[in-house]
Amino acid sequence: MSASGDDVRIGIHASISGELPNALREAAGLGCRTVQLFSRNPRGWEARALEVAEIRAFRRERERLGLDPVIIHAPYLLNLAAATPQVRERSIRALRQEIKRALQLGADYLVLHPGSTLGRSIEDGIRACARAIRRAVWDAAVDSLCLLLENTAGQGHQIGWRFEHLAALLEEVGELPVGICLDTAHAFAAGYDLATEAGFAEMLAQLRATVGLERVRVLHLNDTRVACGGRVDRHWHIGEGNLGAEALRRILTSAAFRGCPFILETPRKTVEDDRRNLARVRAWVAPNG
Ligand SMILES: [Zn+2]
Ligand SMILES: [Zn+2]
User: Fold this and answer.
1) Which residue ranges make up each domain of the chain?
2) 273 an active-site residue?
3) Alpha carbon distance 138, 149 (integer Å)
4) I need a surface site. Which of 4, 53, 79, 244 has the fewest CB within 10 A?
5) Phi and psi at residue 114, in whole multiples of 5°?
6) Which of 40, 62, 113, 280 is an active site residue?
7) What pLDDT sits at residue 144?
């Protein structure tokens, strides 16, 4: 069974230069039906609060352009698994802020990386991360928002590159609305050989046995320049990397991820890069295509 035609939602990670609604316009202008964006500079700790007019404009534009779902990616500096209490506290504050912004903007999902742990065990990192998430969402009414933990490439001391780590995190956060965002480039770098049909089937089996397929809510569809198990995060253009067109098509059209939006986070020097990558992916789900 495979997906086809209109039921596959494809989007990009759009840039927010200028004002936030620009990201929505950029994605819609490229024919996307869903979008991911940062709500702020992803490399800084501090963000100025959103203004009411800004929030209204964003919500109106999203409605007008029919983008669904809208996904916010949390800043890169967050490290909820940090061994240093100061870094962890700062990360919790920043996550609380980010949840607030996502709710104000009416986003559906907030994607975050589990973090990295230095000088202590993965188990301690997982516990610290889960505790941090629980604290960050403690007071927020997150009902309309779902947090998504993204699998990592396993670079350096990152946690979350094995599905078992993610399953443990889900278990520890308990009842909170938390799911998984699956990044194909990260999974491959982490050692899941989804370049082959057998490897993809094996990855699905491991997903089912750990986090469960139903917890996977969003996919990041990226090719990679890294070899399987290379443990480095290096996204690449669709069909031009080590995953390749055949493997990415298999993932996109798999019944396992039916209903999930697919976001491209491929390199962009100019908008032509996005056009080219989107065209390749769309051809795989085009009616009669
Ligand atoms: Zn990410
Ligand atoms: Zn990603």
Assistant:
1) 5-285
2) no
3) 17
4) 53
5) -65, -25
6) 113
7) 83
